[in-house]
Amino acid sequence: FHPVFLLQVENVKLLDRYANRKAATGTLYLTATHLIYVDASAEVRKETWILHHHISSVEKLPLTTAGYPLLIHCKNFHVAHFVIGQERDCHDVFTSLLKLSQPVKPEELYAFSYNPKMSKENREIGWKLIDLKLDYQRMGIPNDYWEIRDINKDYEVCSTYPPEIVVPRAATKAVVMGSSRFRSRGRIPVLSYLCKENNAALCRCSQPLAGFSARCLEDEQMLQAIREANPGSPFMYVVDTRPKLNAMANRAAGKGYENEDNYENIRFKFIGIENIHVMRSSLQKLLEVCEMKSPSMSDFLTGLENSGWLRHIKAVMDAGVFLAKAVREERASVLVHCSDGWDRTAQVCSLASLLLDPFYRTFKGFMVLIEKEWIAMGHKFSHRCGHLDGDPKEVSPVFTQFVECVWQLMQQFPCSFEFNERFLLEIHDHVYSCQFGNFLGTCHKEREELRIFEKTHSLWPFLLQRKQELRNPLYRGFTAYKELQPNTLPFSFQFWCGMYNRFDKGMHPKQCVLDKLLSCMSQKVTLEDNASELENKLPFFDGPLPSEGCSSSKAGPAAAKGPRQDCGEGAAPGLSNGPSLGHQKHKESPSQHRDLHKLSASAEDGKAQHQ
């Protein structure tokens, strides 16, 4: 890879906020896609790469004795503080980064120029890796009550839903279309997750256009069809994830929430998760706390509390827990919505599915979950992540909160997830990187129009290639924990330093437990491979064992059963890959002896463990 430099500035200082060491001095380069800083003062060449799409803000600070400071904040919470010697250079870097980090057209995004030298066939295979139909089949759909319909193939039901949706078999096309007209943006009730054991369904939609008194017979029939698809329960929940005050304000605008008098056998409940504007403000306050130079314990804890961030994380988690309990314990179907059904609804439905089903805690399952609940169902990644130069009030850390909720669960259930923290961070990075096509646009229709599947690559195969470094060495397997029941008391929630201070190396432990465990697992695999290779050689050995204390001249197949049964205590078995050790006893290599000692030591260990 040889980037074309748009700009090159020498003698640029890079300050470290947390390490009390002299600032690095090096060269800053700008390419079409990255800012690259090469530290010239380091003994070993050290590079810092910042993707332009990751940049959320660039700020020129007041002149100092060292030069002209430039502060860069990134969407993955990297903060880079440069000091540039010349004002003209600083201005050029500043204006270039403003332009490069805020593309106007989707075609300017990195995914459309990213070329990993992959064939067209492999790219197409990558996009087909996640098949949502297979996930619905895994749930037992289609069945007597639910079916997959292509009723939205022309996007006439809903422009932000995928062409195929899962709806009750009893819901006629007239019912579906009528419900569509009564739901905000046509986002009718559709299935997210079906519990095969008890037929309880988790469904999602947008708010009804009810105002203070409006009703819709088809929408009422749609909810009745959902309730009757679960014969074991006499009622269903309808959950509004908004605070009640917000929902009532929407009523005044002709929207709002369901009137229990109009819907048969429903139990209505408000959850109270705040809107995107509150969440955006909360994250900003949290990041201000993270960037404190030398905070006291009181300053840090007060700032964390005042940000309200963990309180919001708890609210999302509480909602997910409520939905999971309703489905699993009360055996009741649940319909969830917020305003438009693509932010809070996506958070709580995906979280509840994760709690209910261990499949979604695997690599492949988690990818399916994100594709199903976030990408296919129209979460507005482009707007919420600020991919293009647009309305800053549309930006909000909705997906970040979901990722953090998963991390919080991983702290309580460290053996229940196949992947580790780095996997979550990789996904979070690429939601903002625009390097892959998965998270571009706002819905399936828009991705088709942009020809995402023809012109860009899918993230998932690239992550699966790195499973070894992204796996959880403590994972107990698919069936170890069927469902998760997390503690949601306030003291159960932790500040996620690995996310919000991830790039501040001075704040991290000197020793990483995950690295040690992954290293041990890698060593274990290597030793198992060695042992397997040696076991395969044993049946071919038919000569005398070359160790003192061996009385038998034949090992033969018996050697495969137990390497010590023909030897005295302490003798190491001889191994051969040829016809007879007698013909090559003087040709043994040192590596063969090392293998013998390894096997001998392994046998001793095994013996000690079984005594």
UniProtKB/TrEMBL annotation:
The record's listing under InterPro entries reads: MTMR8_PTP, Myotubularin, Myotubularin-like_Pase_dom, PH-GRAM_MTMR6-9, PH-like_dom_sf, Prot-tyrosine_phosphatase-like, Tyr_Pase_AS, Tyr_Pase_cat
Active-site residues (renumbered) = C338 (phosphocysteine intermediate)
Coiled coil regions in record: none
Alphabetically ordered keywords of this record: Hydrolase, Lipid metabolism
Alphabetical list of SMART domains matching this protein: PTPc_motif (SM00404)
Cite a single GO BP annotation: phosphatidylinositol dephosphorylation
Q: Name one GO cellular component term.
A: nuclear envelope
Q: Where is the composition biased (Basic and acidic residues)?
A: 587-611
What are the start and end residues of every segment in region (Disordered)?
Answer: 549-611
UniProt GO MF annotations: phosphatidylinositol-3,5-bisphosphate phosphatase activity; phosphatidylinositol-3-phosphate phosphatase activity
Q: Where is the Myotubularin phosphatase domain?
A: 126-500
Which residue stretches does the UniProt record annotate as biased composition, category Low complexity?
Answer: 551-562
CDD domains this protein is in?
A: PTP-MTMR8
Q: Which amino acid positions bind substrate, per UniProt? A: N275, I276, C338, S339, D340, G341, W342, D343, R344
Q: Which family does it belong to?
A: Belongs to the protein-tyrosine phosphatase family. Non-receptor class myotubularin subfamily.
- The entry's protein name is MTMR8 protein
The species is: Malurus elegans (Red-winged fairywren)
Q: Upper lineage ranks?
A: Eukaryota, Metazoa, Chordata, Craniata, Vertebrata
Primary gene name: Mtmr8
